[in-house]
Amino acid sequence: MALPYPEGEVYFKRSSLKYPGFAIDTDDKTFYSHALVETVWNSWFNHNDEAKNTKPHVRAKHVQGLGMWYATLFGVWSSQSALFGDSNDGTNITREVVLGKNTNFNEVRDKDQGGPYKVHLQPIPLGPERYMYLDLTVPVRAVYFPIAAKSSALNEDLCTYLMVDFRLRKGVKMRSRQSGKVYDVPYSYSKGLGWRAYESLCFDIPGIYAYLVLPHKMRSLDQGLYQTAVVGEELINLFGAENINDKAPAVANRTYVDFHREIDLAAVISDNFGVDICWTPYEYNVWVFDVLQNVVYLGLSFIPTAGPLCAVAFTIFISAVNDPEAFKAENILKLSPELLVAVVTSAAGMKKNMPKGFFKALK
Asked: Most CB atoms closer than 10 Å: which of 77, 138, 166, 201?
């Protein structure tokens, strides 16, 4: 099985992203307003004496238990929080999403007896906030941000996400937002970031979109998710979980997502077998216009207007970046004046993530 590049576009069948009471393909608004977090759900944080003496977490409850007919005492965290705000210093948190986690210790027992790691995807409702802080109370393997509800006019069940992967490298260097120090963060192919319960990651959501929607060979070496030429411009930072002020959100601003074994990653991958993606030259199609228009009219400020264009009609996106005046004059997408300006402005903002002199090389 071929592997994707560690960061960038990946594809799922929308109809496979569902569990009882929730389905990504309900409508476009549901798709675009939910990120997905991929986690291992049947492992344990600690056991026996360590479990009995666990340091408390500021948001998650430590739960201990035994599998049936099993003597080992396991400790797990009952939840994982995603917190949102418009500051990258851990203050001014306006919203919290609490993801329920597995507390079935028979499942943990089975893993301890040699069973496989079980991995699932959980939806995280996105909003207008720029930053997402994700607690690492479970092993996180990847985070997926929606970019195109329909990847191809030939297969409208296919959708595109931007993946931030924590498995396919040996690790990365991440900067702590508090201390400014850079730390080595190892990755595990099976457990991703592993157990880092007292740490969190801060994601600059619009910045990640503007960077990862570009093909990886077109991304400037001066920019990056974890290391940038200018200190402080990183798109993902380490945070101490206790340094995120979560006292601001009232109960009304907390959303609870129950634990479900679905969306099981093995089933999703199986459903994707046999799906082909290929590049084709752009020809006008109202389908591309609809993809772009839906993102704008849904008011999703965290997705750059030109982002879906880059994902589904790359040659037209290049035109908008390289020669915006010609792009506006030709208006091959037949966009309204307001949408045309929004695309050009967004494309200009994304240009900083591309190598300097890139367009000169094309001439």
From this structure: 138
